């Protein structure tokens, strides 16, 4: 006993005193349950110790104090009651093993460190490492915001715990926390960006890291420590799976989510599957925890781009949650995640409906809780819904949502938080769509500068923002800088994320688009083949996005003179569009028109004429508004028939074109003299051989040069246009002139 008292007194003097969990629960029960930890300090700790300017433990009954069994790492901005609940849930497993966890001692900084500015406070902080050494383990309390990973003291405590005691003594408390929702925070984890209440503390810790391991090495160390801690806990709890199945399930669930965050999908999948099956056995099919497991399974597949595998799990999560309670925060998360799956599948209508529903539920929950300030959850939903409007060509509807989301992010995040770059970038993209080019570029460059300064040039988010700026510049014809930015983004994503990660493929697609616009078809070809291969694998051969990739690649190959593959690709497009849209849909006709053109260039004139005739038949049934398109198709067919030596049919075709031009009038009628000269040239091929063939006048080379069939259907892709004309309206006069001269 005397030994204990001497030790206790020494710890008391040096700020190493921990509070008994029993006292902690009693304390939390008698205070306002809505207070965050920071408010506990300002409203309770500081006032009650002001007369002595001492630590809070200095005014507590010694029977409630002891040497620390556990060190608690947490953030002051979180709800204090949530902190206590997390600690309680963790130790309840010990209670089940016959241990009274309430008699254990936990070290909490708000009680053990003098909160009054003084030398004693400085000394208390300096001895923090000693407390970590003394404690059995460190408990890192996580919540759904993940902001604990953005506090420099918490990162320091993770570092020192693993350094002194190994990952087996770092325990992440994350019960009921959606860890997969913290993907961006996990990937963006950067000690240099982490914050502290006192700037001097932050600078001291950052300098310590720089002079020992280095910032980048420390970032990797902490991410790996979090993963290894969860893996160790899962292995440890496996020995107890019969006695304490729930604790084993929670360890499996946490490890699976952590591995998914780290991109270690092959290791994550069996753990998440096992946790799902175990959860169903414990609580049955219709339980909110089972819904969360399905959500985790969907998240695993979504992160890999396996949308067809993600969808059934995400729909199951939504169904279970809505049946239990349609108005709860988990339902909002699950619906929002389902929207991301359907968005990836190209189903914009369902994605929009789901996001509207999630947004409405979120607002209802906040109204019910009396919350009037827009938070990051709302910002994320606004951002997602706005992105659907952008992708469905409704930028004016997207703009106010992006503006509100950006304001919410600015109100809730630090001014230099890299996450702000995502919101700025999205605003920039919609400003670009609204042709507010200078504003768009300025905002996008600001976002890139923020990422480069705070995350470095090798971070995936920096690569994403850099690629977005490049795509923006490419759309404005600034190909040199655009190519440089997007190429750099692609290289970073390949190194960091892997060659087949969805983000890497997105950069490959963007670079291919810029190369196509710059007529660099040879460089674009391998990129497009990679994108097409992965699109076929993840989305299926007949998905709209896959077919767009097919169309672009076909155009590139045709531009390189490789006609066989493009013909096969456009035949595939025609079949798919006939099946999905019908024979008379403009997109189907566009594919047929491209086939007509490709058959001509490959010397298959008979097939070319057949396909042009199908286009003409379609256009004749569309009414007078398509007369310009019909005229171009007739002249095109004239060129094909001339090349095939079918002058009688070509003559009939040019006669019909002349009639069409006369009917159209205006600018189209001004080309009639040129068409008459074509007719005269064709007539010579029907006269006796003794009559010399006239030479077509040079002026004919300008005939119909600007005539193009109005492009129909969706664009080929977000940032790529097929180098083949989107209609069969090639330069008619040039074609006829070349054909007739060759036959001379």
TrEMBL record:
It is found in: Cytoplasm, Cytoskeleton. It comes from the Eukaryota. One of its GO terms (biological process) is microtubule-based movement. GO terms for cellular component: cytoplasm; kinesin complex; microtubule. TPR repeats lie at residues 379-412, 589-622. SUPFAM superfamilies: TPR-like. The keyword Coiled coil applies. This is NB-ARC domain-containing protein. GO terms for molecular function: kinesin binding. Pfam families: TPR_10 (PF13374), TPR_12 (PF13424).
């Amino acid at each position: 006993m005397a030994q204990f008292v001497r030790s206790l007194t020494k710890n008391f003097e040096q700020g190493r005193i921990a509070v008994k969990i029993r006292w902690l629960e009693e304390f939390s029960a008698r205070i306002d349950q809505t207070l965050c930890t920071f408010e506990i300090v300002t409203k309770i700790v500081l006032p009650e110790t002001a007369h002595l300017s001492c630590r809070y433990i200095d005014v507590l009954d010694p029977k409630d104090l002891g040497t620390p069994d556990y060190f608690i790492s947490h953030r002051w901005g979180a709800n204090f009651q949530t902190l206590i609940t997390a600690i309680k849930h963790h130790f309840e497993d010990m209670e089940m093993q016959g241990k009274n966890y309430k008699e254990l001692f936990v070290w909490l900084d708000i009680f053990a460190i003098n909160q009054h500015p003084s030398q004693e406070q400085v000394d208390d902080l300096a001895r923090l490492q000693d407390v970590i050494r003394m404690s059995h383990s460190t408990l890192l309390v996580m919540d759904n915001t993940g902001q604990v990973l953005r506090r420099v003291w918490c990162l320091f405590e993770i570092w020192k715990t693993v350094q002194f005691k190994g990952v087996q003594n770092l325990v992440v408390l994350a019960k009921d926390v959606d860890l997969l929702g913290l993907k961006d925070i996990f990937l963006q984890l950067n000690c240099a960006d982490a914050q502290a209440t006192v700037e001097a503390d932050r600078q001291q810790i950052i300098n310590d890291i720089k002079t020992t391991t280095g910032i980048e090495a420390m970032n990797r160390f902490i991410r790996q420590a979090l993963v290894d801690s969860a893996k160790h806990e899962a292995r440890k709890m496996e020995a107890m799976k019969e006695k304490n199945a729930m604790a084993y399930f929670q360890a499996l669930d946490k490890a699976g989510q952590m591995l998914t965050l780290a991109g270690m999908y092959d290791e994550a999948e069996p753990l998440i599957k096992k946790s799902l099956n175990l959860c169903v056995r414990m609580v049955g099919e219709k339980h909110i925890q089972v819904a969360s497991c399905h959500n985790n399974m969907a998240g695993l597949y979504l992160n890999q781009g396996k949308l067809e595998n993600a969808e059934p799990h995400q729909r199951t999560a939504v169904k279970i949650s809505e049946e239990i309670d349609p108005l709860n925060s988990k339902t909002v998360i699950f619906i929002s995640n389902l929207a991301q799956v359907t968005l990836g599948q190209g189903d914009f209508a369902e994605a929009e409906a789901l996001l509207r529903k999630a947004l409405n539920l979120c607002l209802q929950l906040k109204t019910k809780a009396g919350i009037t300030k827009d938070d990051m959850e709302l910002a994320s939903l606004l951002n997602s819904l706005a992105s659907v409007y952008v992708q469905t060509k409704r930028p004016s509807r997207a703009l106010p949502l992006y503006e509100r989301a950006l304001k919410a992010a600015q109100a809730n995040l630090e001014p230099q938080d890299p996450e702000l770059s995502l919101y700025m970038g999205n605003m920039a993209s919609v400003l670009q769509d609204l042709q507010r080019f200078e504003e768009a570029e300025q905002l996008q460059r600001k976002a890139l500068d923020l990422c480069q300064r705070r995350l470095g040039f090798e971070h995936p988010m920096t690569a994403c923002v850099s690629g977005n700026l490049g795509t923006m510049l490419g759309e404005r014809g600034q190909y040199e800088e655009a190519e440089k930015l997007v190429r750099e983004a692609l290289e970073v994503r390949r190194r960091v994320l892997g060659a087949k990660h969805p983000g890497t493929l997105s950069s490959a697609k963007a670079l291919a688009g810029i190369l196509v616009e710059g007529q660099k078809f040879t460089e674009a070809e391998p990129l497009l083949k990679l994108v097409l291969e992965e699109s076929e694998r993840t989305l299926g051969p007949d998905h709209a996005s896959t077919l767009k990739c097919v169309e672009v690649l076909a155009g590139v190959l045709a531009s390189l003179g490789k006609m066989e593959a493009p013909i096969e690709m456009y035949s595939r497009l025609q079949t798919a569009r006939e099946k999905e849209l019908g024979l008379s849909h403009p997109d189907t006709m566009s594919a047929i028109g491209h086939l007509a053109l490709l058959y001509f260039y490959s010397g298959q004139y008979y097939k070319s004429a057949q396909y042009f005739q199908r286009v003409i038949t379609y256009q004749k049934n569309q009414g007078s508004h398509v007369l310009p398109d019909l005229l171009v198709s007739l002249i095109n067919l004239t060129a094909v028939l001339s090349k095939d030596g079918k002058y009688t049919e070509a003559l009939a075709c040019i006669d019909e074109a002349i009639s069409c031009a006369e009917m159209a009038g205006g600018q189209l009628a001004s080309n009639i003299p040129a068409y008459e000269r074509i007719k005269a040239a064709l007539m010579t091929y029907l006269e006796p051989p003794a009559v010399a063939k006239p030479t077509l006048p040079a002026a004919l080379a300008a005939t119909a040069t600007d005539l193009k069939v109005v492009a129909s259907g969706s664009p080929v892709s977000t940032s790529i246009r097929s180098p083949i004309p989107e209609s069969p309206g090639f330069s008619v006069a040039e074609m006829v002139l070349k054909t007739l001269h060759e036959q001379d």
